[in-house]
From TrEMBL:
It comes from Sulfoacidibacillus thermotolerans. Pathway: Carbohydrate degradation. This is Ribulose-phosphate 3-epimerase. The keyword Zinc applies. It is an enzyme of class 5 (isomerase). One of its GO terms (biological process) is pentose-phosphate shunt. GO terms for cellular component: cytoplasm.
Amino acid sequence: MKRVQIAPSILSADFSKLGEEIKDVDFHGADWIHVDVMDGHFVPNITIGSLVVRAIRPLTKVPLDVHLMIADPEKYVPEFIAAGADMISFHVEATPHVQRILHMIKSANVRAAVALTPATPLSTVEHILPDVDMILLMTVNPGFGGQVFIPQMVEKTAALRELLIRKHADHIDIEVDGGIAPETVGAIVHAGANLLVAGSSIFGKRDRKAAMEALRVACPVEI
């Protein structure tokens, strides 16, 4: 079992004091800072761009996990690399040039990941495993924070972990994003996820230390 890590999603942070919010979760033990980038086209919402990533990069030494929920990600990946992203994930549904983008990211010494919406089959990543560092499984339909966890994603997570073991690619991280809370982490970690994106269950609480501790306590393994 890989060590499970927590990535608070700034989508649920108070943007009027974003720097303070990031420093708060950094101080209380965040392993990653998750940055959701939405374009109003691939998903029905607009959030932030590379300028915000560049602005927050100096505020924390915690690595930035940038999740591109955008169409034509190959056009914008260089901007996020230059802005200081430590890991970039993009959706396989958003581009026909998956391996080209993975190589673009990895050639810049940035960790490369692909993301799948709930209905996208695992077969879409089976032949690109040598090129990825992580696979992000959406456990809600992407586009908004605060959604309810889709329980069928536990089975999908388990199937992905089995696929990685079968392909001798178990070094690849499995990240889950959407509806992650103390009530859902036990099953999803037991299924094989090792990187948890949590938005409202952390930033929606006044005590962020207690919120992250609640996630850790709920896991079936020590993290």
